[in-house]
């Protein structure tokens, strides 16, 4: 029995199935679940109901949101085996040697894309709309490193659509929440403008980003970004025809948490997963 009261897997050590792929042991799993429960407090504070986003995103929909212009390196396509390969699979041919047929879908790289696409053509009204969701997200990275950078990870987001002022207030309250929770958990975070929302770092959008940042990240002492606040202006509202009543195209913003990265930050701060879980439980109570 560990110091946190969690029973270990007797005589078993969980191995990584491959780069960027990790199975969490019972203590780290409890830490992840508990952290997501704590982080979902922002949704409760802002009266953002919980929804569950789609498991796949259409290529056509993402293209309309400039995903491939901004993040050509991140997409993880979903494919299916061609019908002519099925007999080979059934007879024992190596699956990795057989061709895949595109499905026209990608695995989500962020939770908010599916939520935004689901609201296409809607009117969120003068009072706006908030929703919260946690989803498994996937990214094609140049390298993978522990819990800091994974093929697949959980992202908790609280999304706002409505007025320009409402979008700004959403981010202000979200940023305050991040620092408040970090303080309760014994985490020291630094806040800095990020340059990743636009892939073309030498173009006009990058210059606009430098003058008027739209994303700020909150990072642990080792540089791991564990949360961010993201201002979309009215980009998604215009592209998807989402209106905010008499205010015209909706402005949007979101607060995002990489839950596995919070697990990493807690272990970094407290020295072990057991002590991190004890600290989380004390903070949650």
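-> sequence recovered:
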């Amino acid at each position: 029995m560990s110091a946190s009261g969690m029973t270990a897997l007797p005589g078993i050590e969980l191995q990584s199935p491959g780069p960027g792929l990790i199975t969490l042991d019972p203590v780290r799993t409890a830490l992840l679940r508990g952290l997501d429960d704590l982080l979902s407090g922002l949704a409760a504070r802002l009266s953002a109901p919980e929804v569950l986003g789609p498991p796949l995103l259409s290529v056509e929909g993402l293209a309309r949101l400039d995903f491939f212009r901004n993040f050509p390196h991140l997409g993880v396509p979903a494919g299916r085996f061609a019908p002519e390969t099925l007999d080979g699979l059934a007879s024992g041919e190596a699956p990795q040697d057989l061709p895949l047929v595109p499905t026209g879908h990608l695995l989500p790289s962020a939770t908010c894309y599916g939520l935004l696409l689901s609201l296409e053509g809607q009117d969120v009204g003068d009072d706006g709309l908030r929703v919260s969701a946690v989803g498994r997200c996937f990214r094609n990275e140049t390298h993978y490193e522990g819990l800091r950078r994974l093929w697949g990870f959980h992202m908790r987001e609280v999304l706002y659509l409505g007025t320009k002022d409402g979008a700004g207030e959403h981010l202000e309250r979200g940023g305050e929440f991040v620092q408040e929770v970090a303080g309760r958990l014994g985490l020291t975070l630094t806040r800095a403008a990020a340059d990743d929302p636009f892939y073309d770092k030498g173009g006009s959008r990058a210059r606009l980003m430098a003058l008027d940042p739209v994303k700020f990240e909150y990072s642990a002492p080792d540089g791991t970004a564990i949360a961010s606040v993201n201002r979309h202006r009215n980009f998604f509202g215009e592209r998807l025809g989402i209106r905010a009543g008499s205010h015209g195209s909706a402005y949007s913003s979101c607060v995002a948490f990489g839950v596995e990265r919070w697990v990493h930050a807690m272990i970094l701060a407290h020295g072990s997963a057991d002590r991190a879980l004890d600290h989380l439980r004390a903070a949650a109570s």
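The chain has one domain: 26-58+108-284.
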